[in-house]
Write a structure and sequence with these properties.
about 20% strand, two-stranded antiparallel ribbon, about 400 residues, 6-stranded mixed beta barrel, alpha+beta
Length: about 400
């Protein structure tokens, strides 16, 4: 076997140009497949991040009745010990209280139903980076009595920084809730629906407004790996007392999961077509190499080398080409996608407008999930091994007289 390896290696570099052409086809195939998968999964990750980071979080701890009937009556009290236990779970990066409800937002002449979000400002900013979206004024701070409005809501009510927002609603257990709040900041939320109706308040201020003292409607949990949410859910579920449950972003946003799943299936079909193109491309190169070596095979066989050994050597040559090509392609494709990961491609025109309307950033993002790259390497390598059947078949059908005349 050692001699076969040496012979195959020397055969490869006896004709460098032919070998480099074959390796280039494999390298290009890995790069193309990795680029497509990285771009596809990057777009999904962007959709997930934009959805969970600007509203739901990756997981939420809630009262068991809250998700079906989202009212303050189904809010809950979370002990500091439970929050601390969840924060200590591996892969959990942040835990934050929220109090969510509705109220009628008004000025002197106009009013509009608004979604009121009581938040822990510092923690919420780490989740949503909403302070960077402030267009006028400043973001709220701990124990702040001011509010931050979405630009659309502020424009509708004709309010600016320093003005007073009137809010009227229903608090905990039907208690009347009304108050006057200074507008501290106006933000441009990426989600246009939220932009038209969202009011941010400091959570203690919101609890005071709704008479929901020490209560939260949700405990928002963030992680740096959305692929681990099911495991986190299992770990968190073990800690929860009766009457509380934990939901993942998939359960809270099932329509998003359905969109991604449908689009991913379409992507796999396109990837299948791409692999067919790749297979034919590699096959054409291998066929060219085999036809060029007809006379060589005839001479080697004529001087006594058996077809079986010739086939083994050719298969090893193909394995070398596939292995080297896939390894180089893996490195180049990773570096290629790494650059685009840090420098996403900006979308323009109508595509950018539509993307912004759906609450997503108008960029084409890329993913660096390792499996996206080594899976393409393995698949292209398997394709190259399968294509090695052709030269083996050609050798076994070899006729010495015809080969010598080639």
């Amino acid at each position: 076997m050692k001699n076969n390896l040496k012979l195959a290696w020397r055969n490869l570099w006896r004709n460098r140009r032919r070998t480099l052409i074959a390796m280039s086809s494999v390298i290009f195939s890995v790069i193309l497949a990795s680029w497509m998968r990285s771009m596809q999964e990057g777009s999904y990750e962007s959709m997930i991040n934009n959805t969970v980071k600007y509203y739901s979080g990756y997981l939420q701890v809630q009262d068991t009745a809250y998700w079906d009937e989202r009212t303050l009556e189904n809010s809950m009290e979370v002990s500091p010990e439970l929050k601390q236990q969840i924060e200590q779970i591996k892969k959990v990066t942040l835990v934050s209280h929220r109090l969510e409800s509705f109220a009628l937002a008004a000025n002197q002449q106009q009013s509009k139903p608004a979604m009121v979000l009581g938040i822990e400002p510092k923690a919420e900013d780490q989740i949503t980076a909403i302070s960077k979206k402030i267009k006028y004024g400043a973001f709220i701070e701990a124990n702040d009595n001011g509010v931050v409005l979405g630009q659309g809501l502020a424009d509708f009510l004709n309010l600016s920084v320093g003005d007073t927002l009137v809010m009227i609603g229903q608090g905990y257990h039907g208690i009347s809730a009304n108050g006057l709040f200074p507008v501290k900041g106006i933000m441009e939320h990426p989600n246009q629906e939220f932009n038209k109706r969202l009011v941010y308040m400091e959570i203690e201020n919101a609890r005071e407004f709704y008479s929901a003292y020490n209560l939260s409607t949700a405990l928002v949990i963030m992680t740096d790996d959305h692929y681990k949410v099911d495991k986190l859910k299992t770990d968190i579920k073990k800690m929860l007392p009766p009457g509380k449950e934990v939901l993942t972003w998939i359960e809270m946003q099932p329509e998003l999961e359905q969109i991604i799943r449908s689009d991913r299936m379409g992507g796999f079909i396109m990837l299948g077509i791409l692999y067919l193109v790749i297979a034919f491309g590699i096959f054409s190169v291998v066929m060219m190499m085999t036809k060029e070596r007809q006379r060589e095979f005839g001479v080697i066989h004529a001087v006594g080398m058996k077809k079986r050994k010739m086939s083994v050597v050719v298969v090893i040559e193909t394995l070398f080409i596939g292995l080297i090509g896939c390894t180089v392609g893996l490195v180049i494709s990773y570096l290629f996608c790494l650059w685009f990961y840090h420098n996403p491609i900006p979308l323009t025109g109508e595509t950018a407008n539509v993307t912004a309307q759906y609450g997503m950033e108008p960029y084409m993002f890329f993913s660096l999930t390792p499996s996206l790259f080594y899976n393409q390497m393995i698949l292209v390598f398997l394709i190259s091994i399968f294509i090695a059947i052709f030269p083996v078949y050609t050798i076994y059908r070899l006729k010495i007289i015809r080969a010598l005349r080639a």
